[in-house]
Amino acid sequence: MLRSLKNAFFRRSHYCTSVQNVPQSSETVPVVRTTRQPRQVWVENFDTPESKKLEILELHPEVFAAQPRIDIIHQNVEWQRKYRYVSFAHAKLRFEVRGGGRKPWPQKGMGRARHGSIRSPLWKGGGVSHGPRSPTSHFYMLPYFTRVMGLTSTLSVKLAQDDLFVVENLDIPVEDPKFLQELIDARTWGPSVLIVDESDIFPYNITAATEQIPHVTMMPLYGLNVYSMLKYHTLVLTKDAVRKLEERILYQFNRSDSRELVKKFRVSQ
Questions:
Q1: Nearest Cα residue to 160 out of 229, 38, 64, 60
Q2: CA end-to-end span of the chain, whole Å?
Q3: Tens place of pLDDT for every residue, the chain, 269 residues?
Q4: Bridge pairing between strands 86-87 and 136-137
Q5: 256: CB partners within 8 A, 6+ apart
Q6: Which of 73, 77, 76 is nearest to 5 (CA)?
Q7: What is the pLDDT of residues 167-179, one digit of tens each?
């Protein structure tokens, strides 16, 4: 899923290094102390299969040009895979197995080992000592800013690998899934696409079209996560989703109550 991360990230500065006399976006990027340069990406149309470059959008470097921490991404993926997993493996103890109500032979006088029940863990068909007991939850919580850094690392990797695209909106002229499939093929968006918008209310045409295409999924911005971004080859964000995403992540990096927020995750307590 993460192919050639180091080479792709350091080889690519932004999409438009050689483009001149292109109208820049009038939107401003939130000011945060950083030495990295803003990244740039084309804003494309979504109403025709052929791509039309509408404007250049500047992406904040704290969100889209972060250091690609593969360990942080891996921790987020493992956390998402395990927090919803419940193991139902169950082994019976000696008092739960069938039989064994009487002593198998007298305590003394027969020259045999002393046993009180044939359902002891020493016997075949007996109970199991220290076996798995269901249901066993594998839920745990990652530190708060580890989850935030997982988002920035994954977004930066997607942008560095040319797998992140920005569109003006999600309005398409028809609800035919063939139109959406032709659009994906014409723009070489890969075998699977994740479309993210700011709101969870999507236009009717694209909702009807994606219902019949199993490898295209739509997701609201508040549900964006590391596992889904790695699961799908191409990430498509709307312009409004990009600005809202930057606003929310930059707020987390600069919030005034961060010390209280991570207090319960301190290692020394």
A1: 64
A2: 36
A3: 444 444 444 444 333 333 333 334 444 444 445 567 899 999 999 999 999 999 999 999 999 999 999 999 999 999 999 988 999 999 999 999 998 888 999 999 999 999 999 999 999 999 999 999 999 999 888 988 899 999 999 999 999 999 999 999 999 999 999 999 999 999 999 899 999 999 999 999 999 999 999 999 999 999 999 999 999 999 999 999 999 999 999 999 888 888 787 776 554 43
A4: antiparallel
A5: none
A6: 73
A7: 999 999 999 999 9
In angstroms, the Cα distances linking 22 to 30, 87, 161, 165, 197 are 22, 56, 23, 18, 26
Instruction: Show Cβ contacts of residue 108 under 8 Å, excluding neighbours closer than 6 positions.
Output: none
User: Which ranges in the chain belong to alpha helices (H)?
Assistant: 5-11, 61-64, 70-82, 144-160, 177-186, 204-210, 226-231, 239-253, 258-261
Both tokens of residue 148? Answer: 């935030």
User: What's the pLDDT score for residue 265?
Assistant: 54
For 200-242, the pLDDT digits (tens) are: 999 999 999 999 999 999 999 999 999 999 999 999 999 999 9
**Three-state secondary structure readout of 109-155:** CCCCCCCCCCCCCCCCCCCCCCCCCCCEECCCCCCHHHHHHHHHHHH
Distances (CA, A) of 74 to 30, 154, 200, 204: 29, 10, 28, 36
d(CA 198, CA 144): 22
In angstroms, the Cα distances linking 221 to 69, 121, 194 are 22, 53, 11
Q: Is 85 helix (H, G, I), strand (E, B) or coil?
A: coil
